[in-house]
Amino acid sequence: MTTNKAPETIAASNGIGSDTAFGAVTPPLYLSTTFTFDGFEGKRRFDYSRTDNPSRALLAETLAKLEGGAGAVVVSSGMAAVDLVLSLLRPDDTVIVPHDCYGGTRRLLAERHARSHLRAIFVDQGDEAALAAAFAEKPALVLVESPSNPLMRIVDLAAMSRRAKAVGARLAVDSTFLSPALQQPIAHGADFVIHSTTKYLNGHSDVVGGAVIAAREEDVVELAAWANIVGVTSSPFDAHLTLRGVRTLFPRMERQQATAGAIAAFLARHPAVAAVHYPGLPSHPGHALARAQQKGFGAMLSFELRGGVGAVRRVVGAVRIFNLAESLGGVESLIAHPTTMTHAAMTPEERREAGIGEGLLRLSVGLEAEADLIGDLDQALDGLERAAA
Ligand code: PLP
Prior knowledge:
This protein is an alpha/beta fold. The protein has 14 helices and 12 strands. It has helices at residues 7-13, 54-67, 78-86, 103-114, 128-135, 157-166, 179-182, 217-230, 236-246, 249-268, 287-293, 308-318, 348-354, 370-388; strands spanning 71-75, 94-98, 119-123, 141-145, 170-174, 192-196, 210-214, 273-277, 300-305, 323-324, 334-336, 360-364. The longest helix is centred in the middle third of the chain and has 20 residues, at 249-268. The radius of gyration is 21 Å and the shape is globular. It starts with 6 loop residues before the first helix and ends with a helix. The site of pyridoxal-5'-phosphate (PLP) has 15 residues, from helix 3 and helix 4. The site of pyridoxal-5'-phosphate has 15 residues, from helix 3 and helix 4.
């Protein structure tokens, strides 16, 4: 979907002022499950909301424009979006999956593999030998999460796309951590972009949703048909709320990532912190790549406490502004312990292989004042140092 408008303009205004019934500035919410036919065989654009719905279609159109795709399919969760891409595969097809992806994604791939719906190979995508061995299996699909959850590893999307094309594989990129405001995988050769719209796109922690944006029209048609067949399309109300969130996506991302950068710098200097994983830090192994392929470093980071799980317990009990909760991408700041929360579905062995230690904490940085958030972490970590002393 090509457009000459700046992405900020698309986010703020796509569909605004388009109501032909009353001239409503904000696009109406169409909750109706069904639509009248214009007489015998007179199907209009919409007939039944599982198949297509004006409110959901407007969100899909907006996301497709923001990602530079041919179209989008809006579904009921980020997991449904990942699974929708998997629906393109046959039982003999191999899919390369990052070993350190979101725990739920890993569980989905492992379960589909166990049921012989596909063949999943979990690979450290930063390990050249492991990646070469996986590509030798002639995959049909390569799944990438960049930045990865929770270690913020960066994958070279253009290089992965070239490699995938060389063996006839499709490339799907879960770009949830950055949103189209900060990364557009299709421009780097991806065939599909996956979003948990639950996160930055909605941005207010009040909708669970997902979307797949496809580079090619024929893929949009196939994905939309499957979403209708299995009935995973999102509710119009959720789509309406998500589009309302998209209106402020750019300023939210800009502010939140600026604060995240300041927090990362603060944590990197703190004696209780062993390591900080934030692509915006020059010390991060993916810093140069992130600078080249992203428009910003995002507002997610993780850090390791020297005191292990005991220190984790103290910090999550001491923070006053950060909320101890899963999920990310909302206006409020969250702190999570991947081992016991977001990545609990992985076995201890799988977590060890992925580098997710017990002392790791993940932050989703929101819109609160930078000084308040740093002050909150400062007092929580200060307590920790006194306790250790
Ligand atoms: N992809 C990533 C990177 C995620 O972090 C998540 C959820 O945390 C998902 C997908 C799944 O999204 P949802 O919770 O909307 O199903």
